[in-house]
Design brief:
The protein contains 5 helices and 5 strands; from the N terminus they run αβββααβαβα. By secondary structure, it is of the alpha+beta class. The chain has 3 domains: about 35 residues, no CATH class; about 100 residues, Trna Endonuclease, Chain: A, domain 1; about 60 residues.
Length: about 220
């Protein structure tokens, strides 16, 4: 607003006051300023957050996933990671401090973790759930296949195995169909070539007979 508004719009940001001949004609409301949202999809100083963030990056490269930092505190989302979209999976991540884990070869899995994860996954309508653990935070943050392990219910892993077997049978069936239709296409193309050759031969024969008839005249 370049001058005092005769219509009383003190918050107007327009500079076209002289053109505002009716109430609010050139009124422009101030642009809203939204506070910057803090990015929670990153590691913090909590033990295990490096493992969680590295795992999230690994998941996000292939699937749509959401990391829930400090999931056991005040946040509503359950699980440390929720994978959604074409498949719905809840992950819980556990590790231990490097100082405690250095030189050790064991990691204690508590039954209450698995039972809690099972309940929360069902409540969130997840298809699968599993607990990932690393023997130390350093190994977890690296997210190397040989250093991160998964604990899952037998029913879930058997369901995955059955799904994989079914998918592979379907894939083989599709491959067989593709091979069949490719060969049919080659056969049809060969028939077309043969028919064209036959037509060309007949044309040549007709021409030869015509010339023979002309020579007899």
């Amino acid at each position: 607003m370049s001058q005092e508004c005769k219509w009383g719009y003190e918050d107007c940001t327009s500079d076209k006051c002289v053109l505002c001949v009716t109430n609010g004609l050139k009124y422009e409301e101030p642009k809203k300023r939204y506070p910057m949202r803090r990015n929670t999809q990153k590691a913090d100083k909590r033990m295990g957050s490096g493992f969680e963030f590295a795992n999230h990056q690994s998941n996000e490269a292939l699937l749509s996933s959401k990391m829930t930092l400090n999931s056991g505190a005040t946040v509503k989302e359950k699980g440390d990671e929720q994978i959604t979209g074409i498949i719905r999976v809840m992950e819980e991540l556990k590790t231990q401090m490097p100082e405690r884990a250095r030189g050790t070869k064991s990691f204690a899995i508590q039954r209450k973790w698995l039972e809690k994860l099972n309940r929360e996954a069902k409540a969130e309508n997840m298809e699968f759930w599993y607990l990932k653990f690393a023997f130390s935070e350093d190994e977890g943050a690296a997210v190397k296949d040989s250093q991160v392990y998964v604990v899952v219910e037998q029913d879930i892993i058997m369901s995955m195995v059955k799904t994989m077997a079914m998918d592979r049978r379907k894939a083989k069936e599709v491959d067989a169909k593709i091979d069949f239709y490719q060969k049919k296409s080659i056969e049809a193309e060969a028939k077309n070539v043969a028919l064209k050759a036959e037509i060309d031969t007949l044309k040549a024969q007709v021409k030869m007979l015509e010339l023979q008839q002309e020579n007899k005249k």
